[in-house]
Amino acid sequence: MFFERHEGGERAVLVHLEGQDEQNREDPHEFLELVRSAGAEVADFLNISRYQPSPRFLIGAGKVEELRGLVKSAESDLVIFNHVLTPSQERNLERELECRVIDRTGLILDIFAQRARTHEGKLQVELAQLDHLSTRLVRGWTHLERQKGGIGLRGPGETQLETDRRLLRARIKQISKRLEKVRSQREQARRARRRAEVPVVSLVGYTNAGKSTLFNMLTESAVYAADQLFATLDPTLRRVELDDIGPVIMADTVGFIRHLPHKLVEAFRATLEESSQADLLLHVIDAADAERMSNIEQVNLVLDEIGASALPMLEVYNKIDLLEHFEPQIQRDGNGVAVRVWVSARDGVGLDLLAQAIAERLSEDVVQQSIVLGHDEARLRAQFYAVGAVTAERIAEDGRQELDLRLQRSDFNRLLKREGWQLERFLEQHTLQ
């Protein structure tokens, strides 16, 4: 560690402020879930009504006294705020409470640090943590104003704080370089998938909406899934076969949360780009959550931040098993396009409808055409059969083959190019009248 602070603990007193404006409001129930996900034991919960945050403590001096009493009576060694604290507020509170204090951002960072499994995930979390800590280095030190002393070290030198800042900047630079390499490797993999014309479907949504459970059911995988916030951090990609579409890459991604720390979005940009480069987004929504409309709004804000808001999207309302008398269904817009599917990933209900809706949305660029081939075009006929594009075949009166085709426009283009044709010219001469 680059700095000293009070020893950590698992027994925490929680502080939540009511009376915040709607834009900055936090959900106390979600706060409790975050704390439990971090593995802390809730010793006490202090709910404070305050409309004007104090610049020194965030809460008033009287509430600081009350909080000190709760910490002592509960024998707690940690206080967690459900709000973002400035470095000076954290420092002032730690001095008054004589225990460790962290805010909502620090709590989320701790959960991410516990959940990261891959080397890339650990690097991303460390980068976000170092960015967060860089403004808090002053905390806990009592000797930072002193220069290094002793024989050979007299003179200008540098303070201990300056040394720590320099080391921290060097580590941030090193991690950023490694993540840039990861981003480059991911981009190469994406280019390879684009060359192979394999569509990518990315699952996005609020944390604990059931993305990993749905992903496991669709891909027959065993990705870790649990009823807790941020169960998934590291992106997982699987190849599946869909009727009428062929191979599709499914991507499971990290869940979003309201007021997701900006530094986390920056650190996880390489991972989140899997969503921004997708051909279709599956926005998984907890249908039984009373806050689902607010959660949808928060997800859309993050999608906008990573440049994915304009991508085609299919909403998947999950957990209908928690709703009374609700059947799985596909909902369509005025043009008949599937825009919403209601399913239960846990019970496997409605997944056939979801697969159908995904295939429909991905096949919006599918060519369905009846053509006629001459006697000298047997090679082209064999090519259509080889890619599984022929749905029916007949023999015309003049002996030529009539084929009913269904395939992706990109596959059609690529196949015809190999035979020296352009799509428009081919259809002009071969379309069945």
UniProtKB/TrEMBL annotation:
Which stretches are annotated as coiled coil? 165-192
Residue stretches making up the Hflx-type G domain: 199-366
- Sequence positions that bind GTP: 205-212, 230-234, 252-255, 318-321, 344-346
User: Which Pfam families does the protein's record reference?
Assistant: GTP-bdg_M, GTP-bdg_N, HflX_C, MMR_HSR1
- Main subcellular location of this protein, as a coarse class: cytoplasm
Q: Which organism is it from?
A: Halopseudomonas litoralis
Q: Which UniProt keywords apply?
A: Coiled coil, Cytoplasm, GTP-binding, Magnesium, Metal-binding, Nucleotide-binding
Q: Name one GO cellular component term.
A: cytoplasm
NCBIfam families to which the protein is assigned, alphabetical: GTP_HflX, PRK11058.1
Q: Lineage of the source organism?
A: Bacteria, Pseudomonadati, Pseudomonadota, Gammaproteobacteria, Pseudomonadales
At the top level of its lineage, which domain of life is listed? Bacteria
Q: Which cofactor does it need?
A: Mg(2+)
Please report the name of this protein according to its UniProt entry: GTPase HflX
Q: Where in the cell is it found?
A: Cytoplasm
Q: Which Gene3D superfamilies match?
A: 6.10.250.2860, GTPase HflX, N-terminal domain (3.40.50.11060), P-loop containing nucleotide triphosphate hydrolases (3.40.50.300)
What residues bind Mg(2+), as annotated?
Answer: 212, 232
Binding partners and assembly: Monomer. Associates with the 50S ribosomal subunit.
Q: Which family does it belong to?
A: Belongs to the TRAFAC class OBG-HflX-like GTPase superfamily. HflX GTPase family.
